[in-house]
Write a structure and sequence with these properties.
Elements lengths: L2 H8 L8 E2 L8 E6 L4 E4 L6 E3 L3 E7 L8 E4 L6 H4 L5 E10 L9 E6 L1 H14 L5 E8 L8 E9 L15 E2 L3 H8 L22 H4 L4
Parallel strand pairs: 1-8, 6-11
Antiparallel strand pairs: 2-7, 2-9, 3-4, 5-6, 5-7, 7-8, 9-10
The protein binds zinc ion.
Zinc ion binds next to helix 2.
Length: 216
């Protein structure tokens, strides 16, 4: 594995044992088990189904001048990043067990998707019910690097598997910034912490709440 791949694998918030799911080439496939059920009930009043898919409006920006884009939670009406002209995007952060990986400790992976696949997931949940109860085969359609790549989903028959609870992505993978932090991020001078939970002497700037639960 190249150094860049290694950095990519580990540079994902506090998901320390978690890699990124990816299918690299046209026709590649993997059988996975989602950690998300899909529909969780109905909303009072509207009667619309509610879902446990981690779907958020986020911004992508280089918050610390490192040249690398981070994912930042959009704060809606009071969002300074929106005000700066950076448009929010809708993103889903799926967590899944990739059964192609034999080492059980390594199976948990993250997969960030956009609107097309959000719609696919909602469709699958409506048709198949609790999505944690069955494996799903995911097949890539699209050459390496193609912007027109799509994914097909083939749910398998229900089968037993211990599925862990998904972890919260807000405050770890997705930066949740207050107004001052947002402004620093827009200017590319937000200080992010690296490594594990231990304090490092050279980065003890007192980011307060932000530093306490963030491990970038
Ligand atoms: Zn925003």
């Amino acid at each position: 594995m190249s150094l860049q791949d290694l950095i990519k694998k580990y540079d994902n918030g506090n998901f320390t044992k978690t890699g990124w799911f990816s299918l690299k080439n046209d026709g590649d496939s993997a059988v996975v088990r989602l950690l998300h059920k899909g529909e969780t009930g109905v909303e009072e009043g509207t009667g619309e189904p509610t879902y446990d898919f981690p779907i958020y409006e986020v911004h992508k920006l280089d918050v610390d001048g490192s040249g690398r884009e981070r994912t930042v939670l959009c704060k809606g009406e009071n969002c300074e990043i929106c005000r700066s002209g950076n448009k929010p995007i809708l993103r889903m952060f799926l967590q899944l067990l990739n059964t192609e990986i034999k080492d059980k400790e390594e199976q948990l992976q993250l997969w960030e998707r956009g609107l097309v696949d959000i719609k696919q997931m909602i469709g699958l949940a409506a048709e198949y019910g609790d999505l944690t109860k069955r494996n799903i085969k995911i097949v890539r359609s699209g050459a390496k690097g193609s912007l027109k790549t799509t994914y097909q989903y083939f749910p398998k028959d229900p089968s037993e598997m211990d599925v862990p609870e998904p972890q919260s992505v807000v405050g770890s993978l997705i930066l949740d910034l207050d107004r001052d932090e947002q402004i620093r991020a827009i200017e590319g001078r937000l200080q992010l912490r690296r490594g594990n939970n231990e304090e490092t002497p050279d980065n003890n700037s007192g980011n307060g709440r932000a530093a306490a639960n963030r491990v970038f």
